[in-house]
Design brief:
There is one protein chain. By secondary structure, the chain is α+β, with helices and mostly antiparallel strands. The protein contains 11 helices and 13 strands. Strands 6, 7, 8, 9, 10, 11, 12 and 13 form an 8-stranded mixed sheet that branches. Strands 2-1-5-4-3 form a 5-stranded antiparallel sheet. Helix 8 packs antiparallel against helix 9. The longest helix is centred in the middle third of the chain and has 36 residues.
């Protein structure tokens, strides 16, 4: 057996498709069995008929400027779609110019790549969903605890109770809410309450206060916690004043007239997460109790504070002496009513 016969046998048995074509007419002069099986063409067929995805004119144009061109050709055999990587290059045989066409079945490689891409897209989708879920959980937790407390909770799984001193506490309660809730459409009442508390949250944030919780129609906020604030008293006083002003303006255009009573007090509190299943961040201590009792001493749309709330830091507000009262747990206590400076001047 001579060398040519050996070469032909090798070309007939290798798993690579090979064909020889005339560079001018693009007619296939030879194709091995693998090429014939993939493209279904006989010797003498035009090369563009086998490739399908590229026209004769395009082949001529590309081969005129490129030494070799590469194509991924899709062919359907039975029910399976194959991807054949095809390289067409110029060559010479016995001094005659020819086109050498080499083909490899890369279907499994492309299928593997497609599968990897699919897994990558699924992984990216899951990662985005997990990130959205994490953000949703974070948002929910930040609604019930300050950010620094949330970060401690997520890092250690628990929150160490801490004493904060001094801080100022704001306790707000609506007048006649129970009667309003019973007489009006409960959906309307709750919607309005949600709107008002949302506005209160913005006011609290604007003045550096932290809303701790709402209990029915009651609203509890603190200044100086968890980050110390030397002007905690002024911050909580301004916050209370803005809440009253917001309600006054809102009542001018709404059928439901919301009237609040507010008590503010300074002192110490302990902050911690309470509960295991339905946990919530809460504060306890003398300042909370005193603010609650001062709130009950307020008239509608009035802010009551202890006499320690002087004019320092109360920009636009004036503490008006309201005498001394006996407050349960605190004894005889001097209290003041915080009023807008313009209102006090007019009264004088």
């Amino acid at each position: 057996m001579n060398i040519d016969a050996i070469s032909m046998r090798m070309l007939s048995n290798i798993g690579v498709g090979v064909a020889l074509a005339d560079p001018e007419s693009l007619t296939i002069g030879y194709r091995n069995p693998a090429f014939a099986a993939w493209f279904g063409v006989e010797d003498g067929a035009p090369l563009d008929q086998a490739l399908g995805s590229v026209t004769r004119t395009e082949l001529h144009e590309k081969l005129a400027v490129e030494e070799a061109i590469r194509l991924d050709v899709a062919v359907k055999r039975k029910r399976r779609l194959l991807t054949i990587e095809t390289v067409i290059r110029h060559a010479e045989s016995d001094g005659r110019k020819i086109l050498l066409v080499e083909c490899q079945n890369i279907s499994r490689l492309r299928e593997t790549e497609a599968m990897i891409d699919s897994y990558a897209r699924i992984a990216e989708k899951k990662a985005r969903e997990l990130e959205l879920e994490k953000n949703r959980v974070e948002k929910l937790l930040l609604n019930v605890m300050p950010r620094s407390v949330y970060e401690e909770y997520t890092a250690f799984g628990t929150v160490t109770p801490k004493l904060y001193e001094p801080v100022s506490v704001l306790m707000l309660d609506f007048v006649g809410f129970t009667q309003m809730a019973a007489a009006a459409d409960p959906t309307v009442t709750v919607t309005e309450l949600n709107d008002i508390f949302t506005a209160f949250d913005r006011i609290a944030e604007m003045h550096g206060c932290e809303r701790i919780k709402t209990i029915g129609d009651a609203y509890l906020a603190v200044a100086g916690l968890p980050t110390p604030n030397p002007d905690h008293a002024g911050a909580v006083a301004q916050c209370a004043s803005k809440m009253i002003r917001y309600l006054e303006r809102r009542n001018e255009s709404h059928p439901h007239k919301w009237q609040a009573r507010i008590g503010i007090a300074s002192g110490s509190v302990v902050g911690s997460v309470v509960g295991v299943q339905k946990y919530v961040y809460d504060v306890f201590g003398p300042a909370v109790n005193l603010a609650s009792r001062l709130q009950s001493l307020s008239n509608p749309m009035e802010v009551t504070a202890t006499s320690e709330f002087g004019e320092d830091g109360l920009e636009g507000l004036v503490p008006v002496d309201a005498g001394t009262v006996d407050i349960r747990g605190f004894g005889s206590t001097s209290i003041v009513k915080l009023q807008a400076r313009g209102l006090v001047d007019l009264a004088a």
